[in-house]
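To whoever is on call:

I kicked off a structure prediction for a single chain this morning and the downstream step that reads the tokens threw a length-mismatch warning. I double-checked the sequence; it's 297 residues and nothing unusual in it as far as I can see. Pasting both halves so you can look.
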Amino acid sequence: MTTDTTTTPGLDRVVRACRAMIEAGGPVPAADLATLTGCGQRQLARLFATHAGTTPRAFGHAVRAGEVRRLLREHEQVTDAVFAAGFGSVRSFYETASPTLGMNPHQYATGAAGQTLRWTTVTTDLGPVLAVAGDLGLAAVRIGPDVDLLLEQVRREFPAAHLERDDTGLAELADGLRALARGDRPRTDLPVDLHGTAFQARVWDALRRIPAGQTRSYTEVAEAIGAPAAVRAVASACGANPVALVIPCHRVVRSDGSLGGYRWGLEVKRRLLETEQAEHATEDAVEQSMHLAEQPA
């Protein structure tokens, strides 16, 4: 049964606040929520306590961590209306919460307990790359000169997982990453086994749709996923991208064309873009010459 927000005092304001945080992929400043909902911060906190059994900040962090399902189990006061407003039903929110993500939020929250993660190092034109794969595909791709440091970061992120080196088993994935690093297309699609919020998944999917050799601004990506006001959240999702190269966050730049940030260094981002643009220009020139050769004399 769906609660009617028009007859439940204050629930409509909770709905608007929750939708804003879901679209942003995490917490929204309390002052912004107050402006959005048309009530004071203290009043909104009281409404959340009444209708959601939690605070706006805790709800936002649950969205960011992909743990809204846990929050709902702990706080049954969260009504269908909160999610029906944005997703049609609680069930549809559940189904949308981890699209295309191989590791569910509980597995990720428990440090990938029971998971075996295989890893290998890849020599690329950008330098060493660490590739870590779960059962469904790549769970982490990190770029940097100190592979031991990168591997230790992965161990801290997945403390309950069993990590084992598998250069032979991951050889095909390694070949694909080398191709991406030199601006080329892999021979086969590289599967991913990711964790993240529903918002992050939407951003990452949009990034994979940006053609090699092209860029998009953070604003354009926000518009592409139907959340034009969530530019900062898009930038955060780019920074949280766990699989460099495969999800091409390097193709997102500022509106003025400057590079912006990049987790693996601006020099790496610059080289990637230049390599992809050069490769794309070469492909266009080859296609154009072949087209001219086919024309009748």
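Update from on-call: the warning came from a stale cache, not from the record. Cleared it. Sanity check on the structure: DSSP finds 14 helices and six strands in the chain.
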